[in-house]
Amino acid sequence: MTFISILLALLIEQLKPLRADNPIYTQIQTLANKIEASFNAGKVKHGRLGWWIVIASLTLPTALIYWLCLRLNPIAALLWNVLIVYLTLGFRRYSHYFTSIQLALSSGDEDTARRYLAEWTHLDTTGMDVSEISRLAVERSLIATHRNVFGVFFWFLMPVGPACAVMYRAAEYLSRAWNEPEHMKNEEFGIYAAKVFYWIDWVPARLTAVAFAVVGNFEDAVYSWRNYADRWSDELVGIILSAGGGALGVRLGEPEEKAMVLQADATAVDVDSLELESQPGAEASPRALQSAVGLVWRALLLWMLLLLLLSFAVWI
């Protein structure tokens, strides 16, 4: 049932992608904002309480409906699974940005590529060259694919899969919504959401990195993962991007500069005097975007193949 649910949801999403501003997501965002406004008193314990209220209000009804569907009819449970996977997956939710950037760079229209990248990442892209635009687009696509597809796959395989998939996507959203906005960066309220998502995503992030290594340049992916992942400020992002960049043969991120600053702060030495080994791989280019598409699709097929084999093993 798990394999069929994911396969049907993927097929439906290819035909009818779910918009990022759909009513269901909007209601969840509204709920998170209301909980933050009501519970944020500047302490970590308030963020912990708010996090559990949001997660429980979303996962418990999902689990209850799944249980009722199982009691009613297996087909009803299958349909519920397909609906939840469709709502939690996001394989094509942001692909229009990536495709638009790729087409703009292919035609030499850098201004249009910068505009789409700014809309997607909410970063100031003024003055970015082709290499930087390509690098940021590849980075965002790899992270988005992990958090919207592969992370959901992993948690959907757990007992009460639909509720676990909802939990993962909600936890991922809260880790961003309660930490990344300018007015929340220095707040203790979002600390718990960030910490708990780190542990929720600990295994899925590493499985995604393994998948990238298997379907890409395995040797470079493993080498980059072992030697460069810890240079990112976000460990999980570092694992995915270092392995993904190694698999593609492209340098991603700016971990060296961040590592220099951290080492300088720790040892009180001049940053300019530090020299770190550069990552293997070439500078990002428009061709890297096409390579990233191929890497993601191969990783997806690998996940589906493993899931199919697991389903056969269970049936036998």
TrEMBL record:
Lineage: superkingdom: Bacteria
Pathway as given in its UniProt record: Cofactor biosynthesis; adenosylcobalamin biosynthesis
Signal sequence region: none
Entry keyword Cell membrane: yes
Keyword Transmembrane helix assigned: yes
Pfam family, one: CobD_Cbib
Predominant subcellular localization, coarse grouping: membrane
Location(s) in or outside the cell: Cell membrane
InterPro entries documented for this protein: Cobalamin_biosynth_CobD/CbiB
Membrane topology according to the record: Multi-pass membrane protein
Database matches in PANTHER family: COBALAMIN BIOSYNTHESIS PROTEIN CBIB
Family membership: Belongs to the CobD/CbiB family.
Job description of the protein: Converts cobyric acid to cobinamide by the addition of aminopropanol on the F carboxylic group.
Entry protein name: Cobalamin biosynthesis protein CobD
Species this chain originates from: Undibacterium pigrum
